[in-house]
Design brief:
121 residues; alpha/beta; Oxidized Rhodanese, domain 1; five-stranded parallel sheet; 6 helices; globular; thiosulfate-cyanide sulfurtransferase activity; Rhodanese-like_dom; transferase
Length: 121
């Protein structure tokens, strides 16, 4: 995997300074403790189709701002977002917070770590 561009990393780091994050290793216990959590895969649709956490809903980063209110109108719903490693989900979490969602969390480590921790499809 090639290194990310500096401008992208600066954007991600800025978003991460404003959002809540949990490590992938923390997620299984959080899901067990709180069944209200909605797990959202923000990767590309083809990535989701190739494999995802069982029960995760696909709303890609490219459409999440457009589609989230129809799918999750209650802005206090706990939404836990993941992507491949935690960068795209951080950007999406930042955008959702700006839209008024109060319980948005990005999963650091993303799919790369989650696939070894939770059941997958």
């Amino acid at each position: 995997m090639s290194a990310h561009a500096p401008g992208f990393l600066a954007l991600v780091n800025s978003a991460k300074s404003r959002i809540k994050e949990v490590g992938a290793a923390e997620l299984p216990a959080l899901l067990q403790k709180n069944p209200a959590i909605r797990l959202i895969d923000t990767r590309e649709e083809s990535e989701y189709a190739a494999g995802h956490v069982r029960g995760a809903e696909w709303i890609g980063k490219g459409v999440i701002e457009r589609d989230i209110e129809a799918k999750h109108p209650d802005k206090s719903t706990p939404l836990y977002l993941y992507c491949g490693g935690g960068f795209r989900s951080a950007l999406a979490a930042d955008a959702l917070q700006q839209m008024g969602y109060s319980e948005v969390v990005s999963v650091d480590g993303g799919w790369r770590e989650l696939k070894g921790l939770l059941p997958t499809e």
